[in-house]
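Data availability (excerpt). The following record was deposited with the supplementary files.
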Amino acid sequence: MGKKLKNSGLIGLGVVAGVALSLQFSAMAQKPSVPALPLAELRQLADVFGLIKSDYVEPVEDKKLLTEAISGMVASLDPHSAYLDKKAYAELREGSQGKFVGLGIEIGPSEDGYIKIVAPIEDSPAWRAGIKPGDLISRLDNTPLKGMPLDDSVKLMRGEPHSKVALTVLRKGEQEPLVFNITREEIIQKSVKGKLIEPGYAWLRISQFQEPTVDDMAAKIAELYKQDPNIKGLVLDLRNDPGGVLQGAIGVAAAFLPKNEAIVSTNGQLAEQKTVYYGRPEYYQFHADTDALAQLPEALKQVPMVVLVNTGSASASEIVAGALQDYKRAEIMGTQTFGKGSVQTIRQLTADTAVKLTTARYYTPKGRSIQAKGITPDLLVDEYADGDGVNALRTREADLAKHLSNDREQEGAQTKRDELEEQLRVIALEKQRKPLEYGSSDDFQLAQALNRLKGKPVQFAKPETTVVQASLNK
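Predicted structure:
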C-alpha cells in the first residue's frame, strides 16, 4: 500500500474499557484469499464440537462454541490479536473517533488474575473518582473479575450513559479493597492540549492519536503562535499516550520535520505491509480537500524541541518519538517507552464482526524496531525529583506473554531493570502520591524539559542500583 491509507488506522496499546480502545490498525482491509485447509485437524475440531454437543453436562449453543473457538484461535497468537464481536467492533470504531460511553480507564492484561488499570483517561469519571495506574479491579458490582477474559470484562464495564457501577479495586499499599462508585458517561476525549508555560516556551500534549488529532494539533499550534509569535522552545508531551490512528502519528511527526521525509515503515508477509509512510498529506489526512499542516508557521520546523515520554507511551507515540529522534529534530526525555512495534490489521468477517490480526512490525526511519524494546530517551529523567513513582510499576510489551519478538535488536536492554523491579515497586509505593497532573507547576519532567530548552542544568535519573541501595540501607 504505497499509496493512500484506506480508512482509519489505529496503533496503540491494550484495550480500553469504557475506555479509549488503543490497538493498532494499519488499514481496514478486505478478506484475503484462503490457503489450503488442514482437513485432518478440522475433522478433529469437528469431533470435539460433536462431543461437546452430545456429552456436555448441559446444552451449549452452536454459535457460542464456534465464536469461542475463533476467539481462542486468534488470541493464542500474541497479546494484540483478537476476535471482535459486534459490540467490540462497534466500540473499536467509536474509539478511533475519540468518543465512547464508559468509565474512562485504559486497562491492560491481567495481573494475578485481576484486570489491571494502565491509566485513567484525563478528566474522565474514573480519573475524577481517584482511580490510579496499577490498580487491580477485582469486582464489578457483584461480579468477580478474577480469571475473566479481558474482552468479557470490557463488555461489563461498558453501559448506557448515566448508569452507575461499583468498582472494587485492590491497590498496593492498602490493606483493604477500595470501592469506587462511578457513573458512566459519553467520553469525548480531546486528544490535544496546549499552553504557554511562560513567555517563549510552549507545552503541547497529545494524550491519544484520534482521527481529529492532526486538525486539533494544527489549531492549537496556530493559537499558541498567535499568543506568542516568538516561541523559543516547544515541549511535545507524549507521556501515557497509548497510541491511536496511524495517520495521526504520521501527521504529528510531519508537522515538525522537513516535507516528504519518511516517518515509519512496516514489514510483514503481505505486499501491502512492505511499505514506507512519508510526511505527505495523502498519508495523514482524512479528507482529500484539506491539509491541516499547510498553514502552520514555518518557524515550527526549526523551533528547539524536547519530547516527553514514559513507559505508558506506546505505538503511535513511539513512532513519533522514534522519527524525531532519528532525524535529531528533538531530544527525547523521560523513561523507556512501552515497546509496541507491531501492526494489527482489521479484517472484516461479516458486516459487524472482524478479526484484529498482527500483520507486520513497524520501524523508525533508520530501521530500528521498537517491538518489545521501545524508545530509549536521549535524556533519562524520572517522573519525580526523587524517583519514577508509579511509572516504575507499569507493565511493558516485553512483559506480556507470547509477545512478538524484536527481529532486529536484542531485548536484553531491560534485564537489569527487571532484576530490580520488585525493589523499585517498594520504593514507589512508599511515596503514596496523587496522580500527576501533566502541565502543572508540580510537573517535574516538564520543568526539566524547560531547563534543557533554556540551556540550564537538568536533573537526570539516578542509576537504579543507587536508588535501590539507598532505600534498602534506611
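Summary of structural features: The chain has two domains: 99-188, 199-340+362-472.
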